[in-house]
Design a protein that fits this description.
The protein is of the alpha/beta class. 36% of the residues lie in helices and 19% in strands. It has 14 helices and 18 strands. An 8-stranded parallel β-sheet has the order 9-7-5-2-10-1-11-15, with helices on both faces. A hairpin with a 2-residue loop joins strand 16 and strand 17. The longest helix has 23 residues. The two termini are 34 Å apart. Bound molecules: 6-O-phosphoryl inosine monophosphate (IMO) and magnesium ion (MG). The site of 6-O-phosphoryl inosine monophosphate has 24 residues, from helix 5.
């Protein structure tokens, strides 16, 4: 059984927790897009782990993990995470594999990410500043440097020299910034290459052999559908395909190899960074949900913007990803809310909107249409079966579920 887990909102849906649960039945866990902009928090036996690049399912002993070709790798961040896992007695050397054709993030990508953000003046995206976008730009422009290049020093030297010359011209002419030096960067990345070499595999072959041996694959999506480069709230998105299709291109498996796709949603909505957000809370509600839900970025520590559950967004995600089921997380954050609102549609210019609009200036003007439900006002943290949830909680979710399934 090969499963893809995707975020059905703007990221931070609690994918890490769902992955950790499902990893028990999987053999190989694969990251297929994004980079260390992701932050997957898993609390396990009172220990908190935050994964940025390494598939979070690796916390389960005996599992294999692959960082697929669709991921952009910051070797410094990766080695830090490897070190953390090693400190926790996890046999990372044997468990973790890295695709040889994944692209590598360089210091000039991070610098460009920050310079581009500050030059956007009032139109900033609110990126994580990790160099993700600029690294994907180089990939698409066909001048990126891949893991396999780090292992071939003469080829690497030539590519790095060429890229650095170009970036330094950009720094000077566009931003009036000092150039970056070739030698120390080259030396450092050659050293990363030597350290990473034992982890490097041909990802396509690795997964093909795993499937031939009857192993189960679990694809761990990062970010969420609304942050997808194509299907998200462009340009307030990340630079990769966070939707289910990204699992195939970003790992090198065929669509026919995927057996099921599970979407993860939070019982409310959050987003980090800029861009329109129709169900965003007013300030008082914002503070209480943010505090109760610990809604602060796992990667940048930024406070997350919070709002009511939005069925229009969830439906968009179900359509784009083909989710056969949806996992709902953090319902307990709403335990002491006297009243729950579920957004079942939007209105704009006096008209009903029954699909998520493509024009962000329209999204920004959309008024959410809410169905209001009584809160359940009781502790749901220890409840393990849907049937045992308070009736009011079941009614709120039924409404959300119904709105996801039907066009208003
Ligand atoms: P997980 O996997 C939430 C957001 C950033 C910014 C936009 C672009 O934890 O759900 P980028 O640095 O990717 O170019 O920034 O995307 N963003 C995330 N928001 N969770 C994430 O990952 C995110 N990864 C990127 O805040 O708005
Ligand atoms: Mg996050």
């Amino acid at each position: 059984m090969n499963t893809v887990i995707i975020g059905a909102q703007w990221g931070d849906e609690g994918k890490g927790k769902v992955i950790d649960l499902l990893a028990a039945d999987a053999d190989v866990i694969i990251r297929y897009q994004g980079g260390n902009n992701a932050g997957h928090t898993v609390i396990c036996d009172q220990d908190e782990f935050i994964f940025h690049l390494i598939p979070s399912g690796l916390l389960n002993p005996g599992k294999l993990g692959l960082i697929g070709n669709g991921v952009v790798i910051d070797p410094e961040g990766l080695l830090k995470e490897v070190g953390q896992l090693r400190g926790r007695d996890i046999d990372v050397e044997n468990a973790l594999k890295i695709s040889d054709i994944a692209h590598v993030i360089f210091p000039y990508h991070k610098k460009l990410d920050q310079l581009e953000e500050s030059s956007r003046e009032g139109r900033s995206i609110g990126t994580t500043g990790r160099g993700i976008g600029p690294c994907y730009v180089d990939k698409v422009a066909r001048c990126g440097i891949r893991i396999v290049d780090l292992l071939n020093e003469p080829v690497f030297a030539e590519k790095l020299r060429h890229n650095l010359t170009e970036k330094n011209r950009l720094f000077k002419l566009l931003y009036n910034e000092a150039p970056m030096a070739f030698e120390p960067m080259f030396e450092q990345y050659c050293a990363y290459g030597r350290t990473l070499r034992p982890f490097v595999v041909n990802g396509v072959r690795f997964l093909r052999e795993a499937m031939q041996q009857g192993k189960s694959l679990l694809f761990e999506g990062a970010q969420g559908t609304l942050l997808d480069l194509d299907h998200g709230t462009y340009p307030y998105v990340t630079s990769s395909n966070a939707t289910a299709g990204g699992a195939c291109t970003g790992a090198g498996v065929a669509p026919t190899a995927i057996d099921r796709i599970i979407g993860v949603v939070k019982a409310y909505t959050t987003r980090v960074g800029e861009g329109p957000f129709p169900t965003e809370f007013p300030p008082e509600l914002m503070d209480s949900v943010r505090t109760r839900g610990k809604e602060f970025g796992a990667t940048t520590g930024r406070p997350r913007r919070c709002g009511w559950f939005d069925a229009l967004i969830a439906r968009h995600a179900v359509w784009v990803n083909g989710c056969g089921s949806v996992a709902v997380t953090k319902l307990d954050v709403l335990d002491d809310m006297p009243m729950i609102q579920v957004c079942v549609g939007y209105r704009v210019d006096g008209k009903d909107v029954d699909q998520f609009p493509s024009d962000m200036s329209v999204v920004a003007r959309c008024e959410p249409v809410y169905e209001t439900h009584a809160g359940w006002m009781s502790d749901t943290t220890a409840i393990e079966r849907v049937e045992d949830l308070p009736k009011a909680a079941q009614a709120s979710w039924k409404c959300a579920d119904h709105s996801i399934a039907t066009v208003r």
